[in-house]
Amino acid sequence: MSFILGISCFYHDSAAALIKDDEIIYASQEERFSRKKHDAGFPDKSIRYILSKYGLKLSEIDYIVFYEKPFLKFERILETHIAYSPFGFKSFLHSIPLWIKDKLFQKNILFNELKKIDIDFKEKNKIKFSDHHLSHAASSFYPSPFKEAAFLTLDGVGEWTTTSYGYADDSNLNFDCQIQFPHSLGLLYSAFTYYLGFKVNSGEYKLMGLAPYGEPKYTNLIFKELIAT
Predict the structure, then answer these.
(1) What are phi and psi of 92, to 5 degrees?
(2) CB of 157 within 8 A of CB of 187?
(3) Residue 168 to residue 145: CA distance in whole angstroms
(4) What residues contact residue 150 under an 8 Å CB cut-off, 6+ apart?
(5) In which band, very low, low, confident or very high, does the pLDDT at 22 lie, cut at 50, 70 and 90?
(6) How far is it, in rounded angstroms, from Cα 114 to Cα 119?
(7) Cβ atoms 28, 49 nearer than 8 A
(8) How far is residue 221's CA from residue 84's CA, in Å, rounded to a whole number?
(9) Residue 80: what are its φ and ψ, rounded to 5°?
(10) Fold observed for domain 3-69+102-130
(11) What is the sign, positive or negative, of the torsion defined by CA atoms of 159, 160, 165, 168?
């Protein structure tokens, strides 16, 4: 019997999930416990509930997996700022100190947070990091009933990838193509969300809900000016 604890946090909608052998047996967003909408903090309450519900200690968890690789993400942020300097210098001054102080040391942060839950937890090497879009594809394919499938992932941006597709079979995820930042359908959608006065990473569903009531009179302009085919 093996257990994997999955953790997503520090961006938006923090969550935790527990896998027993090859089955997801529990998953929850932290906001369900904290009552803070889109809670981005460490999912302390979710993890405590999971451990309590299944009578587990962190020492009994085989792997604790974070949903992306911080060093690759920092590489993308740093290279982007350099490539587009001096534009975005204000953003650079705001974001880089946060990375150097905290985010580059994500493993230490996660370890310290986990020790608050279980003071006896000492196995830092159990904490692993998965590529962002690999996490997306895995969370879709592995719990599915299929032995093989094609997969497609789209979001704002992970480390570098914004869209990927490939083929999955048994325990393998094979990526055939990856579109990389700054080319992103998800970020384009967020840009329109912001332009219309909604909050990014929060109001996108409102834009989706309003879409059927609009008229597609800007479609050709968007394809002409914003999208390369």
Answers:
(1) -60, -45
(2) yes
(3) 12
(4) 165, 166, 167, 168
(5) confident
(6) 8
(7) yes
(8) 26
(9) -65, -45
(10) Nucleotidyltransferase; domain 5 (3.30.420)
(11) negative
Helices (H) and strands (E) in the chain, counts: 9, 8
Taking the C-alpha atoms of residue 169 and residue 165, their distance in angstroms, rounded to an integer, is 14
Give me the pLDDT at residue 46, please. Answer: 97
Give the integer Cα–Cα distance in Å for 6 and 29.
Answer: 12
As given in the structure block, the two tokens for residue 44 are 């302390």
How far is 168 from 170, CA to CA, in rounded Å? 7
Burial class for 34, CB neighbours closer than 10 Å (0-12, 13-18, 19+): middle
Which residues lie closer than 8 Å to 106 by C-beta, 6 or more apart? Answer: 10, 66, 70, 129
Residue 101 has pLDDT above 80, yes or no: no
pLDDT given at position 91: 78
Distance CA 189, CA 156 (A): 8
Alpha helices in the chain (DSSP H): 31-34, 44-54, 70-83, 89-101, 106-117, 132-141, 185-195, 204-210, 219-225
Partners of residue 37 on adjacent β-strands: none
Q: What b-and-e string marks burial along 138-174, b requiring 16 or more CB atoms within 10 Å of the CB?
A: bbbbeeeeeeeeebebbbbbbbbbbbbbbebeeeebe
Give domain limits for the chain. Answer: 3-69+102-130, 71-100, 145-225
